[in-house]
Write a structure and sequence with these properties.
137 residues, alpha+beta, ph1033 like fold, 6-stranded mixed beta sheet
């Protein structure tokens, strides 16, 4: 299993929106690196759902339930999407500042490439953030 972080602007698509519908395609990604990351996703992979812009925090966890396929919103045919199922709320919303303040997490694309909307998270970093998010630490 691999781990990821996906970003959404909450005024466009929020964690509450995703929970309400349950499963939703992650469409509209037009960055080649983010698209490459989505191509690497497999069924059962987990991702932190991150509210970007003003909130800048992890608010939930989703699971890949359909692997990369053509994005119906892309007229060029170059980009695809995956489907995510809402899995669970986090008990403690982990902020970007908390992640930046933890020296074990400064290598993450969330910190180094702040505009990347879909990024990988290594297993060790996932566990650190998951423990913070679920109040396990």
């Amino acid at each position: 299993m691999k781990y990821w972080l996906i970003k959404s602007e909450p005024h466009k698509w929020s964690w509450e929106d995703h929970k309400r519908v349950g499963v939703e395609p992650w469409d509209g990604v037009r960055n080649y690196q983010a698209a490459h990351n989505m191509k690497a996703m497999k069924l059962g992979d987990l991702a932190f759902f991150y509210h970007s812009v003003k909130e800048r925090k992890i608010v939930g966890i989703v699971e890949v339930v359909k692997e990369y396929y053509p994005d119906h919103t892309d007229e060029s045919g170059r980009f695809g999407m995956v489907d995510f199922k809402a899995v669970e709320d986090v008990n403690n919303q982990v902020t970007l500042q908390e992640i930046k303040d933890d020296p074990r997490l400064t290598h993450l694309p969330l910190v180094k490439q702040s505009r990347l909307s879909v990024s990988p998270i290594d297993k060790e970093a996932w566990q650190i953030i998951y423990d913070k998010a679920m109040n396990n630490s």
